[in-house]
Amino acid sequence: MTVRVVALGSRDADDVRTGGTVAERLAAVAQLTELGWALAKLPLPAYSRRTMPVVVTTLSAQADGD
Q1: Which residues are CB-contacts of 57 (< 8 A; sequence separation ≥ 6)?
Q2: How far apart are CA 52 and CA 50, in angstroms?
Q3: pTM of full prediction above 0.90
Q4: Average pLDDT of the chain?
């Protein structure tokens, strides 16, 4: 599957090729996320966005192996 990430406020977010309204697409993402966790037989994460276990990096840092 090929995907394209666009900012919700951008002109590209209204592109008819993406299908549905912004609200419909967000609802689909939520449904697919819940399904993915259920298929993995794991509970939905209970952490907040503030405490999410993520690492912010740049493409150049990844290329350097940092």
Answers
A1: 66
A2: 6
A3: no
A4: 81
- How big is the chain, counted in residues? 66
The Cα–Cα gap between 31 and 44 comes to: 12
Q: What residues of the chain score a pLDDT lower than 50?
A: none
CA distance 39 to 62: 30
Which distant-in-sequence residues (6+ apart) come within 8 Å of 10 by Cβ? none
Domain boundaries, the chain: 11-64
Instruction: Please write down the long-range contacts of 60-66, taking CB distance under 8 Å and 24 or more positions apart.
Output: none
Select from 50, 54, 44, 3 the least CA-distant residue to 25. Answer: 3
Reported for 27-36, long-range contacts at CB under 8 A and 24+ positions apart, including other chains, are none
- Neighbouring CB atoms inside 10 A of 66's CB total 8
